[in-house]
């Protein structure tokens, strides 16, 4: 699986590509040190393959590397954060 990043002035997304299909996790940037993860989309062809989990972990790693905090509005990402107590450090 390959995860890439696209960023705009107001936000961006992480794209995961697997077997010719793409999944995404989008975010809005509230400030240079704060992002709001607002959506995770995984097509049916990639369900059950850990793609959403990989995107969530990638977002957490990027937040730690960048020194910023996350507000999890996306229900999927929010549920993943609740399952991983070790991710609490990135939450605002």
Automatic annotation (TrEMBL):
Residues of the signal peptide: none
InterPro entries: Acyl_CoA_acyltransferase, Gcn5-rel_NAT, GNAT_YJDJ
Pfam families named in the record: Acetyltransf_CG
Membrane-spanning ranges: none
SUPFAM superfamilies named in the record: Acyl-CoA N-acyltransferases (Nat)
Domain spans labelled N-acetyltransferase: 6-92
Listed name of the protein: N-acetyltransferase domain-containing protein
CDD domains noted in UniProt: NAT_SF
Organism from which the protein derives: Xaviernesmea oryzae
């Amino acid at each position: 699986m390959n995860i890439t990043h696209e960023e705009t002035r107001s936000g961006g997304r992480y794209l995961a590509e697997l077997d010719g299909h793409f999944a995404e996790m989008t975010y809005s940037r509230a400030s240079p040190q704060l992002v709001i993860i607002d959506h995770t989309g995984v097509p049916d062809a990639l369900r059950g393959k850990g793609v959403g989990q990989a995107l969530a972990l990638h977002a957490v790693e990027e937040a730690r590397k960048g020194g910023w905090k996350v507000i999890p509005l996306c229900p999927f990402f929010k549920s993943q954060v609740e399952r991983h107590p070790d991710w609490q450090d990135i939450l605002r």
